[in-house]
Specification:
The chain is of the alpha/beta class.
Length: about 300
């Protein structure tokens, strides 16, 4: 387990083992305190995009387990501009024990991993968001257990979050349905990968336009912002396209009675998700955010070979 760049890079068994470890580490966090399993280790955190949850959850994961984290801002490195990615990777390999990179271009994190002598974690790229996907899966398991055949429905833009949610659902044998407007579909390459995984696990993948059809029988309704970082010039156009995909009380009422509503945050309230739903009884958006901490501890522990 040298790197953690995509959920699809791992087998279903490895993903399940990592999630089991996340459950264990979360229990230890609240019951016994944290074992210092990362003692003497430092995480280097490279940021091209700002973040609340990614930075704080990784930093605190290291601290809780006896390690440390070093924040590297865009201006300090200028990844691929001030200095080549290959050189950055080789230099940092001599200073820290693991790298996490939150980047615009997925090729940048792949290049880091190619040249690095230490594990590299994808903290987000334009292709996927695997750390978020693991936290999402942990949240679903806490609510429903890991029963095969759970129905996970995503409504909105077919973006990087959709890709990782689709891949982890396929790995765990959950049925995944996505409803997107025309022109905003999930990455075809990511879909092909998910279909190959689903053949092995029995997951059913469905791609629709109608959000109401997508949430029928759903145990999970997931949405994300209509306009991601780097797409700001498309905001006005997207706000004309996406209103029918808003997760509101009416849409939630059409799903399973025990449905949970998820969002990776930050949320543009009363756009993709209404206040009534975000703060309502079906919402798990804040436990989901907190689970970034525990899922990422498990990822780090797996890469370090400790538990």
């Amino acid at each position: 387990m040298k790197d953690f760049l995509a959920i699809s890079d791992y087998s279903s068994e490895e993903i399940q083992d990592m999630l089991d470890l996340a459950v264990k580490l979360k229990k230890e966090h609240f019951k016994k305190g944290n074992k210092k399993i990362f003692k003497g280790k430092v995480l280097g955190m490279i940021f091209q995009k700002p973040s609340l949850r990614t930075r704080i959850s990784f930093d605190m994961a290291m601290r809780h387990c006896g390690g440390d984290a070093l924040y590297l801002s865009p201006s300090e490195i200028g990844l691929g501009k001030r200095e080549s990615i290959a050189d950055v990777a080789r230099v940092l390999s001599g200073y820290v024990e693991v790298l996490m990179a939150r980047v615009f271009d997925h090729a940048h994190v792949v290049e880091l991993a190619k040249w690095s002598e230490i594990p590299v974690i994808n903290g987000l790229s334009d292709y996927n968001h695997p750390c978020q996907g693991m936290a999402d899966a942990l949240t679903v398991i806490e609510k429903f257990g890991n029963a095969k055949g759970l129905n996970v429905s995503y409504v909105g833009d077919g973006n990087n979050v959709t890709t990782s949610l689709m891949h982890v659902s396929a790995q765990l044998g959950w049925n995944f349905t996505v409803a997107t407007p025309e022109g905003y579909d999930t990455n075809p390459k990511a879909i092909a990968i998910a279909e190959n995984i689903a053949k092995k696990t029995g997951s059913k993948l469905t791609f629709l336009r109608d959000p109401h059809e997508a949430v029928k029988g759903a145990h999970v309704i997931y949405t994300d912002t209509w306009t991601s970082m780097g797409q700001e010039e498309e905001t006005a156009k997207r706000e004309l396209v996406f209103p029918p995909y808003q997760v509101n009380s009416q849409l939630v009422s059409e799903a399973d009675k025990d449905v949970i509503v998820m969002h990776c945050l930050p949320a543009h309230r009363n756009h993709e998700l209404t206040d009534e739903v975000a703060d309502g009884p079906h919402s798990v958006i804040f436990p989901q955010a907190h689970n970034r901490l525990h899922a990422q501890k498990a990822i780090l522990a797996s890469l370090f070979g400790v538990a």
